């Protein structure tokens, strides 16, 4: 009988939070874009454009978490968890 991988059971799936961040960012961009269309305010347009940065960061986080969730293989003996650092580097810059 094969031993069970307890690390996979103990690690929560954080991708649902990345999806929540994506949905929230899309709604924020749509609301700010709609407000800009109604008012013509350049400030709202600028804020909507800045919110796109949050959307890109959330998408990168989802991709990184998806890669990090992969199990260890022949090329990555300790798994793929270091992929999360790429997302953190992008978010921090």
TrEMBL record:
Q: Return the GO cellular component terms, semicolon-separated.
A: membrane
| GO function terms (MF aspect) | monoatomic cation transmembrane transporter activity
Check the record and name the Gene3D superfamilies matching this protein.
Cation efflux protein transmembrane domain
Q: What is its main location?
A: membrane
* Hydrolase is among the record's keywords: no
Q: Which domain of life is it from?
A: Bacteria
What are the TM regions of this chain, as residue ranges? 20-39, 51-69
Is Membrane among the key words of this record?
Answer: yes
Q: Which GO terms describe its biological process?
A: zinc ion transport
Cellular compartment(s): Membrane
**Residue ranges occupied by any Cation efflux protein transmembrane domain in the UniProt entry:** 19-92
Q: Keywords in UniProt for this one? A: Membrane, Transmembrane, Transmembrane helix
How does this chain sit within the bilayer?
Answer: Multi-pass membrane protein
Q: What is this protein called?
A: Cation transporter
